UniProtKB/TrEMBL annotation:
Occurrences of domain PurM-like N-terminal (ranges): 34-89
Record keyword Translocase present: no
Keyword Ribonucleoprotein: no
Organism listed in the record: Candidatus Caccoplasma merdipullorum
GO biological process: thiamine biosynthetic process
Keywords, comma-separated and alphabetical: Kinase, Thiamine biosynthesis, Transferase
Highest rank taxon of the organism: Bacteria
GO molecular function (one): thiamine-phosphate kinase activity
The name this protein goes by in its record: Thiamine-phosphate kinase
Length: 89
């Protein structure tokens, strides 16, 4: 198997590569992987589910970032995904 560097795929290419062939088995899933958040329909109520990964040395440095600022950033990046899907956190 030929090795492909992640940097050549890009974010959306990597998502496509990882999720290729995945089919949704739950009828509640309206929108799955590949958007800012997953959309689930739970008894007529739509729920957005999102996660983000923040890595020290890439997204923050604890040498100069206070923990309260890191907590704020952790919340805001997820709120941003919810707003991008026209939701309310």
């Amino acid at each position: 198997m030929k090795r492909t560097e992640i940097s050549t795929l890009g974010e959306f290419g990597l998502i496509d590569h990882i999720t290729e062939g995945i089919e949704f088995v739950n009828k509640e899933t309206v929108k799955g992987v590949g958007d800012d958040a997953a959309v689930l329909d739970m008894n007529g109520t739509r729920t957005l589910v999102t996660t983000d990964l923040l890595l020290e040395g890439i997204h923050f440095d604890l040498t100069y970032v206070p923990l309260k600022h890191l907590g704020y950033k952790s919340a805001v990046v997820n709120f941003s995904d919810i707003y991008a899907m026209n939701g309310t956190p």
